[in-house]
Design a protein that fits this description.
Largest sheet of chain C: 8 strands, mixed
Oligomer: heterotrimer
Strand content of chain B: 15-25%
Number of strands of chain C: 8
CATH superfamily of the largest domain in chain B: Pyruvate-ferredoxin oxidoreductase, PFOR, domain III
Structural class of chain B: alpha/beta
Shape of chain C: globular
Radius of gyration of chain C: 19 Å
Strand order of the largest sheet of chain C: 2-1-3-4-6-5-8-7
Shape of chain B: globular
Low-confidence stretches of chain C: none
CATH class of chain C: Alpha Beta
Number of strands of chain B: 23
Mean pLDDT of chain C: 95
Strand order of the largest sheet of chain B: 6-5-4-1-3-2-14-7
Structural class of chain C: alpha/beta
CATH architecture of chain C: 3-Layer(aba) Sandwich
Largest sheet of chain B: 8 strands, mixed
CATH class of the largest domain in chain B: Alpha Beta
Distance between the termini of chain C: 58 Å
Number of helices of chain C: 9
Strand content of chain C: 15-25%
Largest interface: B-C, 65 and 51 residues
Order of helices and strands of chain C: HEEHEHHEHEHEHEHEH
Number of helices of chain B: 18
CATH topology of chain C: Rossmann fold
Bound molecules: thiamine diphosphate, iron/sulfur cluster, magnesium ion
CATH topology of the largest domain in chain B: Pyruvate-ferredoxin Oxidoreductase, domain 3
CATH superfamily of chain C: Thiamin diphosphate (ThDP)-binding fold, Pyr/PP domains
Helix content of chain C: 25-40%
């Protein structure tokens, strides 16, 4: 959404919904991955994140009720990569990740979402869009802070947390 | 269940081997002996006879020495005798290479062109030599050729009606025009006239038979037709001798029935293309020979594991490796039975005559489709490339269920474990029944699994579906009674059957058991078929006695056993089997 | 022609089977899976009319994760299976997928011939320049001096295989590169590839975080090719001479007709075929 100016409420809602539902799916995927990789702690956290994100999605869905939202093809999303956390090379999931990592990952996501909505607010000329974007940004920031608080309960992992003494498995 | 006893039929002709005439035509480089041989065979068919013709040739692609080996008879014939009544050579270049394949004795007639030099190896076998001015006569006719003169001479010798020849020539030369037909007929007439000078040999005269519809077909063509009758509509293949003619026949004919043949880049591709075609719901088949089968093996295992029906026709040739591509051998039995890695039950069947290539290929297709597995058909060069005159094969229709589904099914699980072992197979396009076919071991839904429970369940299921199926009488051909038997398979059945007929004519009863179904094994059925038998000769055309060892491994054989395992390239002859049986009888 | 679909009837997620992948977290293949589901959703494909065929490898595990018809074949043979399926069932949308080892090494001959044959399908090769499934050996696309595999101490010292060049030389009708580091961009390429008639080849960069962790940097290295697709093979060939393996987008769109024999019955009875045998 960076760079493109958004001047209609329906477009903002459509993009926000797309973004949120991708987040939900991604947390779901991560939770699945962690279950498969036998990291229940991370799996549980991702499930929790998924639920949280889902309820936010529902809020936006309610806002959209009665409106016809445009369909936005994925290649037009162009939001920050931090949100595409399953993309390799970023703060993606790791099979030995600790709760600290998990929450950091989610904080990054919220941070970039907040940044994104703030940009939209600034770029738009429509008051209704600005207002909505502002509230979305606030929500993301608040959630980020909440995650930070939650993270404080977990120790910062020591160096070498991702060391695995066993070699990878040979499969097919 | 065992109903094999009921298949035992009394031998129709206990009067010995069919009365027949064996004729060899030799010639090199463009002499046209193959064409003339084929025309002689077709004309014999026109006159209501039966017969067969095998081609034999040197390694040259063009211009090499060639022999057309014919056997004609008022009764169906399924094998050559080895001994020839007439040998006609248009020339004698390199003719000694056929010694061993063509056996003559003092009753044979040898016909050569005037001035020709019969090789010692041939004249030493005996036979009465007659010279005919083949090339001189041909020269006197515009467009005349020695092979047509030869054809006329042979027709005269064996009492073949000239109008039968005319019919055949008119049909085969119709594209070349009137003049070509006339030139050929002039040659034929000149040959007839010349041969009239040869004193009449009553044994050579074959009486014309009643006019019934007669087919002229090779085993390879028959296999192609069997495939289409069995429902095959997709073929992918890579050419290889001696299987290529199956593909050559199928390519244009599949097209007519809405199917298609794809020439693949290699056999790895062809077998996998079949798996794709079959996964899409189209019965699929390929034809190959030993080297190609070896390349396909990994993916035949995939067909077995993923329960995707495929049919592979292996037209066997001499092996190992590139071996002897133009000659027959039954030495691919082991790879067909045991070549697959893992426990991979599948179907192996073998046609026992040229005409049977049709039925057996059709049946193999039916079994693959019904049981969702791979069928390997073991034909061979001698069946595949020999042309025979046969009665029109019966129309047989199988009801191939295969449990294919094309409409939404409740609780669809592709590899569900059930009593029959055959689970529903949804065809792509069917909503709600999507699944992933897998060569990895899997659970009933198709999800990859390395759990012991899933493995044993799926192994059992894949074995059970083959073991429980009722193969009926088709599993073998069982003929005759007696306490001596011959166990054989595939193309060895012809010579064995004829040897048994020869013994029968002398009052010795020998039982014939030729197995069409080689896998899964049928121990109960074979035990019943062998009831009362004390001595069994196992006949096969291979050096390693693969069939004999297979029988010893899988069957209880309470009788005394002997192995007659003869490698190619020479055919097993009825005489060889006869002598072996005779010798044992007198032991 | 990557026109937006006004209203996809199924969401990308609805193209997933629900089977949980065995891939390592962070593996590029997750994004490829995502990109495929997005492309299918955008194209409104009905899952039952799509078939995805693969070989063996980490990447080849893909079909089981999708709610379409799938075939997980043996190593290297995805393309022939897909070919047989499409030729006999032209009504289906056929995709083939697999790894660089599967497609360029053991299945290399099929790749060349599939390009030549030009059957209407889309082939996605997830290139991580390594054999992931067998613990990280060099593949045909591995750099000659990559020395992390026990099988090739000191590196392979063999020039890498260049998929786009081979595809172009062999006659593929559509040639593109996409990257799992940009699943949305990859979805766009896939839509285009699937829509294009004939054989479409998509070279999909897809990092192996386990055996090639340095590939996480690919994200920073990929960039859109600064040109439009060409239909002139000579132009495409020229562009490939300056390609560094990280340009993304569609390189070539040919207009060769797809290979698809007509499947039409022209005889009334099977016995018509037998006339040739009757004397
Ligand atoms: C005939 C055969 N040979 C070897 C193997 C072992 N094998 C399985 S996957 C693989 C390589 C996979 O590499 P690639 O195709 O690049 O897939 P990736 O795992 O990297 O996605 C090999 C060699 C096999 N399964 N079958
Ligand atoms: S080993 Fe590499 S390619 Fe395989 S799943 Fe893991 S990251 Fe992906
Ligand atoms: Mg790889």
């Amino acid at each position: 959404m960076t760079g493109s100016q958004i001047d209609s409420k329906v477009e903002l809602l459509a993009r926000t919904l797309a973004m949120l539902s991708e987040m939900v799916e991604r947390y779901d995927l991560f939770a699945d991955q962690m279950e498969v990789m036998n990291n229940p702690e991370a799996a549980e956290l991702f499930r929790w994140l998924e639920k949280k994100q889902n309820s936010r999605t529902r809020v936006v869905q309610e806002l959209s009720e009665g409106l016809t939202l445009p369909h936005i093809p994925p290649w037009d999303y162009n939001w920050d990569d931090a949100i595409n956390t399953e993309v390799p090379g970023h703060s993606s999931a790791h099979y030995m990740m600790t709760p600290y990592h998990t929450l950091t990952l989610a904080m990054d996501v919220e941070q970039s979402a907040a940044d994104l909505f703030r940009q939209i607010e600034q770029g738009s000329t429509v008051a209704e869009v600005q207002k909505l974007a502002r509230s979305f940004a606030r929500e993301a920031s608040e959630f980020r802070d909440y995650l930070k608080q939650k993270r404080a309960a977990h120790p910062v992992p020591e160096a070498g947390w991702d060391e695995d003494e066993d070699p990878p498995l040979l499969l097919e | 269940m065992n109903n094999s006893a009921s298949t035992e039929t009394a031998k129709g002709s206990s009067t010995g081997a069919p009365r027949s005439l064996s004729i060899a035509m030799l010639g090199s480089g463009g002499s046209g002996v193959m064409t003339a041989g084929q025309q002689l065979l077709d004309a014999a068919g026109q006159a209501g006879w039966y017969g067969m013709m095998t081609r034999s040739s040197g390694p040259q692609i063009r211009g090499g020495e060639a022999a057309a080996l014919l056997r004609l008879s008022p009764q169906p014939v399924e094998t050559h005798k080895g001994r020839f009544d007439i040998l006609l050579a248009i020339d004698w270049l390199n003719a000694d290479r056929f010694v061993g394949e063509i056996i003559l004795d003092s009753n044979s007639i040898v016909i050569g062109d005037v001035g020709g030099q019969v090789p010692d190896a041939i004249s030493n076998m005996g036979g009465r030599y007659v010279e005919l001015p083949l090339s001189e006569l041909a020269k006197g006719i515009t467009g005349g050729r020695p092979n047509m003169v030869a054809l006329g001479a042979l027709a005269q010798l064996i009492n073949l009606p000239v109008d039968a020849l005319e019919k055949v020539l008119t049909k085969s030369l119709s594209k070349k025009g009137e003049a070509a037909i006339e030139a050929s007929m002039s040659g034929v007439r000149a040959g007839i006239e010349q041969a009239s000078a040869i004193p009449d040999i009553p044994e050579f005269r074959i009486e014309a038979n009643s006019q019934v519809e007669r087919w002229s077909i090779t085993g390879n063509e028959a296999a192609g037709l069997g495939a289409i009758r069995g429902g095959v509509r997709f073929v992918a293949a890579y050419p290889i001798t001696p299987g290529t003619e199956i593909l050559e026949w199928l390519a244009p004919n599949l097209k007519k029935v809405g199917g298609v043949l794809v020439q693949a880049e290699d056999e790895l591709a062809s077998i996998n293309q079949l798996i794709g075609g079959s996964f899409g719901g189209t019965p699929s088949l390929t034809a190959t020979s030993g080297p190609g089968l070896a390349l396909m093996i990994e993916s035949i295992g995939l067909a077995v594991a993923s329960e995707t029906p495929v049919v592979v026709v292996d037209v066997m040739r001499g092996g190992p490796s590139t071996g002897i591509p133009t000659k027959s051998e039954q030495s691919d039995l082991n790879i067909a039975l045991y070549g697959l890695h893992g426990d991979a039950p599948h179907i192996v069947v073998a046609p026992m005559s040229i005409g049977d290539c049709l039925f057996t290929t059709q049946w193999a297709t039916h079994l693959a489709e019904t049981l969702q597995t791979a069928s390997i058909v073991l034909s061979d060069q001698s069946l595949g490339q020999t042309r025979a005159l046969i009665d029109r094969p019966a129309d047989i229709a199988f009801v191939s269920g295969g449990r294919k589904i094309t409409s939404k099914a409740e609780d669809f699980r592709r590899y569900v474990v059930n009593e029959s072992g055959v689970s529903p197979m949804s065809i792509p396009g069917t909503p709600g029944c999507q699944y992933t076919a897998d060569g990895l071991e899997h659970s009933p839904t198709g999800t990859p699994s390395s759990r012991a429970e899933d493995h044993i369940q799926q192994l059992n299921k894949r074995k059970r579906k083959l073991d429980q199926f009722d193969y009926g009488d088709h599993w073998a051909k069982i003929e005759g009674k007696g306490d001596m038997a011959v166990l054989t398979w595939g193309s060895s059945t012809g010579p064995v059957s004829e040897a048994i007929d020869m013994l029968a004519a002398e009052g010795h009863k020998v039982r014939l058991i030729s197995m069409r179904l080689l896998s899964p094994t049928q121990p109960e059925r074979l035990a019943a078929a062998l009831a009362g038998v004390q001595r069994t000769l196992v006949v096969e055309q291979c050096h390693g006695a693969q069939f004999y060892h297979y029988l010893r491994a899988h069957y209880d054989l309470p009788c005394e056993l002997r192995s007659m395992a003869v490698p190619g390239p020479l055919m097993i002859r009825p005489d060889d089997v006869y002598s072996e049986l005779k010798a044992w009888e007198n032991d | 022609m990557e026109t937006a679909n006004p209203c996809p009837s199924l969401k990308p997620n609805e193209y997933k089977s629900g089977t949980k992948p065995v891939w390592c977290p962070g593996c590029g293949d997750y994004s490829v899976l995502l990109a495929i589901t997005k492309a299918m959703s955008e194209m409104n494909l009905e899952p039952e009319n799509v078939a995805l065929v693969s070989g063996i490898g980490c990447s080849s595990r893909l079909p089981a994760y999708l709610n379409v018809y799938g075939f997980h074949a043996v190593h290297g043979r995805a393309l022939p299976v897909a070919t047989g399926l499409k030729v006999s069932r032209p009504d289906l949308t056929v995709l083939a997928a697999g790894g660089d080892g599967d497609g360029f090494s053991i299945g290399g001959n099929h790749f060349m011939h599939a390009c030549r044959r030009n059957v209407d399908m889309t082939y996605i090769v997830m290139d991580n320049q390594v054999y992931g499934m067998t613990k990280g050996q060099a593949s045909p696309t591995t750099d000659p001096d990559w020395d992390k595999s026990k099988l090739t101490p000191g590196g392979t010292k063999i020039n890498p295989y260049y998929p786009l060049v081979i595809a172009l030389a062999s006659g593929a009708n559509f040639i593109a590169r996409a990257s799992s580091t940009d699943p949305n961009g990859a979805a766009k390429v896939l839509v285009d590839a699937i829509r294009h008639p004939g054989f479409s080849f998509v070279h999909m960069l897809s990092p192996c975080v386990t055996f090639r962790p340095e590939q996480k940097d690919w994200k920073k290295m990929v960039r859109a090719a600064p040109v439009e697709p060409t239909k002139d093979p000579a132009v495409a060939a020229k562009r490939l001479m300056t390609d560094d393996n990280f340009f993304l987008g569609t390189l070539y769109k040919g207009d060769r007709a797809a290979y698809q024999p007509e499947l039409k019955t022209t005889v009334e009875h099977l016995s018509d075929l037998e006339q040739g045998f009757v004397l």
